[in-house]
Amino acid sequence: MSVADSARSSAPADLARQPVRRFLARVLVSDHPFPWLFPATAMILAFGIYPLVYSIWLSLHEWNRFTRSFSFVGGEQWAKALTDPRMWHALGVTTTYTVVCLAVELALGLGIALLLDRDRRGYGVLRGLMTLPLVVPPAVTGLMFLLMLDGQFGVLTYYGVMLGILERAQPLLGHTSFALFGVMLADVWQWTPFMVLIFLAGLRALPKDPFEAAAIDGANAFQIFWRLTVPMLGRVAAVAILIRAIDLFRIYDYVYVMTGGGPGTATEVLSFYAGRIFTTGNFSYAATISLITLVVLIVVANLFIRLFRVRF
Amino acid sequence: MTRARWQNLLHDLGACLVVFVFLFPILWWVLASFKPYSAIFVPQPVFVDFAATTANYDVTILGQSRTAQALEQGGQVGGTAGGGSSYYSIPSILDSLVVAVLSTALCLVLATLAAYALSRLRFAGKDHYVFWVLSQRMMPPIAVAIPFFFIFRDLGLRDTHLGLVIAHALVNLPLAVLLMKSFMDDVPKEVDEAAMIDGATRLQSFARVVLPMVRGGLAATAVLCFIFSWTEFLVSLQLTTSIRTIPVKISTFVTSTGTEWGFITALGSAAMVPAFIFILLVQRHLVRGLTLGSMKD
Lengths: 312, 297
Hints:
A: 312 residues, MetI-like fold, 14 helices, B: mainly alpha, two-stranded antiparallel ribbon
């Protein structure tokens, strides 16, 4: 009796559970990427795409002070941005900043990586110490260089004056033409170690055979460097350039801390200009300037990936 | 023989010099945090010739009131007048720690799952998906902060730890996905295929086979996420008012009456210690992962 009872009661439950179980089994052995990609995609859609759509919406509207509401203005913000000389100036400053920093960081990064790529004792410690600048908050890096470049008591100013590069009456960060170099100095200091790390990883992964063959054939160090090392590190460099360029083009912290965009607008980069507009309350125009930054980056990054066949 | 030795010595000297140049700003910074004000604000740099003091750490880390400190020493400590309590930074360090740890955890879970699919499964549009994820990093930080400001206000996430955790995880997600994918690509496919032939489900082969093999990569990615969150400034500045992460807290030391260099250097130095310990622990894995798989084939 009791056995029959339990059999009767469990049968419908089993039937009800079966589709669930079958579904679960299918998911567990499935090769479909959906369950794996879903969490990250959902996160990006919810918190990444929504801000993007919001920004686009903002860029097509204008806040009306009197009615206290947004009204649709179409491409007016965009037309205003594209004819705004200050936007073009900021774009120019951003481009100069990105290109110069990228070139210097690449060259220094490769040079230092070659210098530190030794198996002798102590080089491991040197490589470890070299990564130290990466852990300094960028805002603190800005302050560090602000302190060292101070016209009165900055240590770099002191030695700069001694060497005749700087003048005490004209601090580097207060100079219209050279303030940007001061900001670049902070960036180069902080991010060259990143390039060093990447190039070290690349150098470690290079095959040995071509180098031995070249040495046997009597190639000198110069030839080996330009004909073998540089081309073989090309792919590593391409990924490094891409990641660094994206971050350089969105530079904000150093400018905010060190110069506030000044003197005048000499160091005003795109994201700082957008931020400045944002604080005045013109959210629509700030969003438009930000979207211009995004569009430029997407176009340039795509071109770069196609041109250099970057693969992840 | 002797020539090779000279060359080696020259090489060593060059390497030490370069590393010293890059360490100098940090050394100078830490040195300044132990200096009395009179030794910071002098035209001629002071290296060793000063009376070292922990006064700056007493105020920022131990929460000693600045007025009490001034009375105790019977003289002036700081250059500018101001309240003492607002310089106490342990709450900020805790805020930073909570946000950095939780956002790293969230980011790692999402990134590892996505990276597994990108590394092991075949599906159409994979390259486009990777670029789409990467493009999330192309938005200027201010453009992320503006809409977040409104969305978080509507959702009640503004000025909460959860809000900042979500924002930081999102900012870190693209790099974390790319890194984890490159680490998983390093594990030969045959290993987990063998497990699945032996009857393991995909989830089992992921959790029991692939995941343990990318432990080092996971650690390296975690450290990078942690450091980015630990050092992030703009998003935290825009999204919070009472919660203050360390970089934001430091920026409040630049006041209208003057810059509190002593406190800034002290808190800045203290903030570097945990991040540097983490990065040293996983440096070996970091060096491999940072090539993002571009060294293969």
